[in-house]
């Protein structure tokens, strides 16, 4: 359960503000006005702090609460502007388009790819195969993961398939994230970018109905995940 100790607002109000910002195309100043119309007076700087603080917490809980995913993965990275520079959002979905994992990186190279695959494997298990594009760094990352698995005595070996055509699924899935980020005019720090993207990915997973729940409300499901 996420603790809001020290926050001088009702938990529902805080989570509603965070979810609304992550899910819809709205600025912090617009959200400040929306919250005021609902009787909650909070400035845009505080709203930003809420998103940066609570989004990673919800994302961590989301990984343990999502439905099991398939063992055939599609992996790719997309560009995100941070401090005026392009950085890289690593993402993976399964063969049905359900989100597996995500990670923002300042660099696109073998160590970054290896960190991402290690992160994805820790929360989703070992896949049978991973489809990537022609990226040599991503292929090297999978080879490194296979070496690590062998070192620990794991008989499983992840198959690498390099196909841009088969990877269209995740390239299409980038659109939701890019559409939401496009209106943010870039991030001011790596920390805020990574935290906010964590939350946007959870909102995207809710949109895809990746969590078992009886509620049809996106916000209520977000609040259930938060605990």
Automatic annotation (TrEMBL):
Q: Where's the Integrase catalytic domain?
A: 64-224
Q: Which UniProt keywords apply?
A: DNA recombination, DNA-binding, Transposition
According to the UniProt entry, its GO molecular function terms are: DNA binding
- GO BP annotation list: DNA integration; DNA recombination; transposition
Q: Which residue windows are coiled coil? A: none
Pfam families given in the database record: DDE_Tnp_IS240
Sorted alphabetically, which SUPFAM superfamilies does this protein's record hold?
Ribonuclease H-like (SSF53098)
| Presence of the UniProt keyword DNA-binding in the record | yes
What's the stated role of this polypeptide?
Answer: Involved in the transposition of the insertion sequence.
* Official protein name in the record: Integrase
Upper lineage ranks?
Answer: Bacteria, Pseudomonadati, Pseudomonadota, Alphaproteobacteria, Rhodobacterales
């Amino acid at each position: 359960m996420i603790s809001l100790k020290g926050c001088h607002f009702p938990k529902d109000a805080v989570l509603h503000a965070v979810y609304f910002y992550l899910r819809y195309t709205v600025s912090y100043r617009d959200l400040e006005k929306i919250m005021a119309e609902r009787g909650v007076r909070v400035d845009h700087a505080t709203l930003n702090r809420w998103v940066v603080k609570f989004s990673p917490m919800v994302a961590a809980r989301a990984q343990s609460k999502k439905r099991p995913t398939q063992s055939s993965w599609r992996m790719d990275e997309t560009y995100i502007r941070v401090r005026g520079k392009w950085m890289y959002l690593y993402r993976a979905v399964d063969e049905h388009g359900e989100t597996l994992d995500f990670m923002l990186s300042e660099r696109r190279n073998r160590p970054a790819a290896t960190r991402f695959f290690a992160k994805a494997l820790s929360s989703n298990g070992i896949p049978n195969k991973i489809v990537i594009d022609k990226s040599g760094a991503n292929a090297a990352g999978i080879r490194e993961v296979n070496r690590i698995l062998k070192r620990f005595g794991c008989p499983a070996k992840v198959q690498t398939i390099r196909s841009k055509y088969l990877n269209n699924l995740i390239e299409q899935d980038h659109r939701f994230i890019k559409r939401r980020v496009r209106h943010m005019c870039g991030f001011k720090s790596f920390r805020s970018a990574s935290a906010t993207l964590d939350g946007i990915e959870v909102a995207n997973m809710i949109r895809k109905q990746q969590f078992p729940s009886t509620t049809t409300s996106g916000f209520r499901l977000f609040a259930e995940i938060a605990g």
